[in-house]
Amino acid sequence: MTEDDFLILVRKHQDKVYRHALYLLKNSEDAKDMTQETFIKAWQHRTKLREKTVHSWLLKCVQNLCFNQLKRRKFQVHLSEEEDETLEMLLHTHSQRSNPSPDEITIKQELKQLVHRAIGELPPAMRSIVIMRELEEMSYKEIAEVIKQPENSVKSTVFRARKKLREILNRLMEK
Amino acid sequence: MNQYTTNDTNCTDIQALLEEYVAGELDSETESIITLHLPTCDSCQHELRLVQTIDTVLDDLPKPTTPPEVLSEVTAYVQAHPRSSWIHRVFQLTTFLDFLRSPLLRVSASVCLVGIVVFGVYQYQQNVKVEQATRDFNYAISKMNFAVQKTGLAVNDSFTSLKVDEAPRRALKPTANVSSAIQRSLGIINNLTGSDMQHTSDTIPSKTDE
Fold first, then answer.
1. Contact A166 B51 (CB under 8 A)
2. Which chain A residue is nearest to residue B74, measuring alpha carbons?
3. pTM value surpassing 0.80
């Protein structure tokens, strides 16, 4: 693989890798570092990369790096306000794009923030699967390739994660 | 506490299946039970709204793009480390092993390997046969040389005891016999080895030629 080929690959996959890191770590600086590290590792292992499997390889790599980062920093289930800022800003700007009424914006905004917080409270492995399924719209088969688990297991994890989200959302709404 | 309360165990079971219900993953019988139950139960309706809300929000999560500095940093790294190190060459070997994960390629590689082994064994056997034939040939040549030497000595002995006037007459006969014996031997060796030994026979001096 030449340098040019590799940089084309980086441009193609960087957003998915970055988003995965951002939703897992909930910190843009850390997500940037993990994305860079993922592609540096990909360059170092470029002879192993195959067109068909490069996407799942990159996601597996960023997932592992993020899990290690979470362990290193003794990442708590409840995130600090500072760590939440980036995504909250994104959620805010994202809800203003569709031009709804101010009330709708407020309700939607609150709901999104609650769901977002609920996602943040999911265990990292479960969160990673939710990101792949809901954000990147990957099939169960594709996710199974990334996490090296059977397709049925992935499917049941997705439903368990959604039930868990509902439990957390219920709890957050009661507060 | 939730303002809605679960009526009975039926509600708990139904609420546990609401994600699958919304995703359309249930069998038709279970789906119809839930569809009939929902309008009659506030608690289950509340849970259904939550499931639908989560579904909507998840479908509409923002998709941030990568900051440009990531690409520039990666580009800088790639340009600074353009060549393969020895470790990458080792990885090339593991890549080849990965390549063999495909069943078709695995079968092809096995067939090639077996072919190479069979060809090697065949070549070895041919080599052993050639070596054996060479040894046999050398043995035959040495025997023949020995016979020629012995015959020559015998003839010389006979010549010394002959009278001068008998020598030409008696000399011709045994010499001719020896010469024909050598020719016969060479003919047999030629037949054995399949090579043309005529030139060899030409080099052997005979009394008649003299």
1. yes
2. A36
3. no
